[in-house]
Amino acid sequence: MNRPITPDEMTRQALIALIPRLRRFARVLTGSIADADDVVQAALEKAMVNLHSYQPGTRLDAWVFRIARNHWVDDRRRAHNRMGHDDIGEMIDLAGDDGVAVVEARAEARMVRAAVDSLPPEQRDVVALVMLEELSYREAADMLGLPIGTVMSRLSRAKAALAKRMTETGAVQ
Amino acid sequence: MSAPFTDAQLAAFINGNLDDEALIDAIEAAINADPALAERAEAQAGGDALAPLVREAYAPVLDAPVPERLIAAAAQHEAEVVDLAAARAAKAPVLPTPANDTGRGGWRWPQFGAIAASLALGVMIGGPLLNGGSDAPAGESLVLASADLAAMLDSVPSGQKADLASLGEGEVVLTFRDGDGRLCRQFMIESAGNTSDAVACSGGAAGGSGWQIEAYGRRAAPAGEMKLAGGDAAPAVVAAVDAMIDSDPLIGADEVAELGKK
After folding, report:
1. ipTM confidence score
2. How many angstroms separate the CA of residue A162 from the nearest CA in chain B?
3. Which one of A32, A143, A145, B201 has the lowest number of neighbouring Cβ atoms within 10 Å?
4. What is the pTM of this model?
5. Of A50, A78, A118, which to mutate for an interface test with B (greatest number of B Cβ within 10 Å)?
6. How does residue A19 score in pLDDT terms, banded at 50, 70 and 90?
7. Residue A109: closest CA among chain B residues belongs to which residue?
8. How far apart, in Å, are the Cα atoms of A98 and each of A19, B57, B107, B243, B255?
């Protein structure tokens, strides 16, 4: 491709590099890869159209994650009976490689995802941002527009619920 | 101010080991009122055994190949800025420079087509392109800059292809009224193998008789693939229509009659 290397083109390339993380983030929010990819696609389209509202020097990931989350929140209001469906297994189970350790690891991963999927949306937000994206509480609070104590309490409840659920299902002892 | 809670309580809070709901609420409120307490709580954070498990569980998503349609979504170039005043003064649809103009850095045709389509939509800077989403700057709107396109929206019934000259071929896929009673039409434009979707409403905030673009997007589907009219439209447009539609779709004689009064 013979594109000019403009600031917008660099931002575009950076957005493409962020797609795997965007998918993971959206998967936690939506509960399925199929819905996550719809959210990511819409977020990227919005981002490209609104590139002029991105301020160079600020965090591009935070900017596009916020777009993705806003889109999902709006979308969820319209379709609130949507059901999650853990299709991550389908992404990798196709790959073969069936050693016992691998099968066990996948079963554990499925249980962990089931535990995360069972959390209420406001707790999934903080799990996605703080546990997976490793944002600080302050960064997560800024992105979600919440006070920091509220982010902490949501993660506190999420951790307690995850530990309980994983112990029940045997994902952790 | 931080005094009422012990370090042990804060540690249990930050590490997710508290099951006393009232205490969690009390600590949350205290931290929200006192940033110093947030620091004290964070200092109590212990090794988090859960986070690595959760990261491991979602690692396959990071490792999976990225679907083509997502790359395509990021290939949509930023809407070109059109000086509407200048365009109106020129009394002509704004068209980009030819594809072989090296001044544009050698655009390939597919991109050129998409840009032609966005120019046809008279894209102004900062328009609320996407369904009034909170990321779209408010206060400005998109106005059609193509006479061919406006003519199609004014009079061509749904499902009938319209020749938009240099823009390609257009087709209205859905006509409906929104919550404010405005007549709105979802349409697509095919140009150089690319399909763009948009939804426009008549009149609008500007109060004029023109069509205002409410949402616009480019399809990721590869060229030449079988299409269901409107069924696989750009998500931004589908979402906008879902949010706006406030009547049964207008079809047949009803549609023609409504177009007559707009």
Report:
1. 0.86
2. 8
3. A145
4. 0.55
5. A50
6. very high
7. B57
8. 28, 17, 47, 46, 59
